[in-house]
Amino acid sequence: KQWYQRRVAITAGARRAVPMAPNVSVPTNFGRQHIGSLTHSNLLLNLKDGKTSRANSLILSFNSPVIQDLISNLELTSLDLLEFQETAVSCFIDSLYTGEVELLQ
């Protein structure tokens, strides 16, 4: 058994095995400045009172197995979070992007 996994890469119609890194780490802080980015926010979050927010589905999936399941298995591109306060959703998204939880006053 080799120390690395193999995947199949298709290059110019040919298939070849490409070694993958044995351990891939994901950053724990994606940065608050990326929340709501028009370029990278592919998931629409529907909030109370017709408000919306946007986030990156991959970042949310890394940190939430529930969101991972909704996006991957059900192929959702939007989530209805109508029963949560906008502030709570904002704090939740912030914590998934930064790995930190801020206490609300």
Structural descriptors:
disordered N terminus; 22% strand; three-stranded mixed sheet; single chain; 5 strands; 105 residues; alpha+beta
Walk me through what this model shows.
It is a single chain. Helix 1 crosses helix 2. The chain is α+β, with helices and mostly antiparallel strands and 105 residues long. Mean pLDDT is 75; it is low at 1-21. 10% of the residues are buried. A hairpin with a 5-residue loop joins strand 3 (43-46) and strand 4 (52-55). It has helices at residues 57-63, 65-72, 86-98; strands at 6-11, 14-19, 43-46, 52-55, 78-80. Helices cover 27% and strands 22% of the residues. The strands form 2 sheets. A 3-stranded mixed sheet has the order 4-3-5.
What is the CA-based Rg, rounded?
A: 18 Å
Count the DSSP helices. 3
Q: Low-confidence segments, ≥5 residues, pLDDT <50?
A: 1-21
User: What fraction of residues sit in β-strands?
Assistant: 15-25%
Overall mean pLDDT stands at 75
Q: Could you estimate the helical fraction of the residues in percent?
A: 25-40%
Q: In this structure, how is the largest beta sheet organized?
A: 3 strands, mixed
Order the strands across the largest sheet as they lie in space: 4-3-5
Give the overall shape, derived from the CA principal axes: globular
End-to-end span in angstroms?
Answer: 54 Å
Total E-strand runs: 5
N to C succession of SSEs = EEEEHHEH
Summing up helix and strand content along with how strands pair, one would put the structural category as alpha+beta
